[in-house]
Amino acid sequence: MKIPSPGQPDEFTVKTMGDSFWISEYPLQQSSFLFDMLQGKKKFDDETNKYFDYTLFNYSTVRLFYDILHGVPQFGVHVRDAIDLGILVGFDGQLKQKSEKEKSIFEALIRQLFDKALDGKEKALVWLYVKTWNAYGAHIIEYEQFVSEWVIDTDDDGVKVDLWTFHKKDVDAALVAMLYPVTEDTNSLQIIELKEMILERFDNDLDKYFEWSLKMRDEMRIKDQKKKTVYCEECRQIHEDNSQW
What we know:
Helix content is 42%, strand content 11%. The protein contains 9 helices and 7 strands; from the N terminus they run E-E-H-E-H-H-H-H-H-E-H-H-H-E-E-E. It has helices at residues 32-42, 59-69, 79-88, 100-115, 120-131, 138-141, 168-179, 189-200, 206-219, and strands at 12-16, 21-23, 51-54, 165-166, 221-222, 228-232, 237-241. Strands 2-1-3 form a 3-stranded mixed sheet, covered by helices on one side. Strands 4-5 form a two-stranded parallel ribbon. Strands 6-7 form a two-stranded antiparallel ribbon. The longest helix is centred in the middle third of the chain and has 16 residues, at 100-115. Residues 1-7 and 227-245 have low confidence and may be disordered.
């Protein structure tokens, strides 16, 4: 595919997995990370410094990112673009370099994951998808290092809730859903889409996915069975209630 050349001296080409588009310096000035890159590119006058490379990402995700930098309000963001945007804003070290614009986008996305009515299986599928990005998605798994305290939920005892700790049944359900058609999943567009996203990372090769998933199963954090101490006045004994959370 032919990459369009910038129309003006102050324009740059943004390359994605699909189509490419032009930008001015304005959106680059909204991010300290991109602004530093811009200053570096201005020192050289060759063609390689006239584009920004996002070829790991779909056009819609990159377009969404630059629309946000332009201040365009976003409503009803697609689940794929939302998760991929979370990966994009940190895959190149932006959050480690404390780029505030990327941090604000990342915090909003993590907060949405806490707020969104995802069941355990759906969250486990999101985790699996993020893990397919390997190091590029590590900041989403390790989100606590990069977000403010207000972003993270707490339970009734004031203890932080871990977004990526699962019940065993949810882990098992997610792994089974990837390999076998489950009737209830056919009514969930979100689960269908998450399954498609994960398999696409393996070129839709189930054997490759299965081999990889065996390793991932050991990495998933499973909630410990919660034990409640109950004092029985009548029998004057202490009992442990092993009921599931």
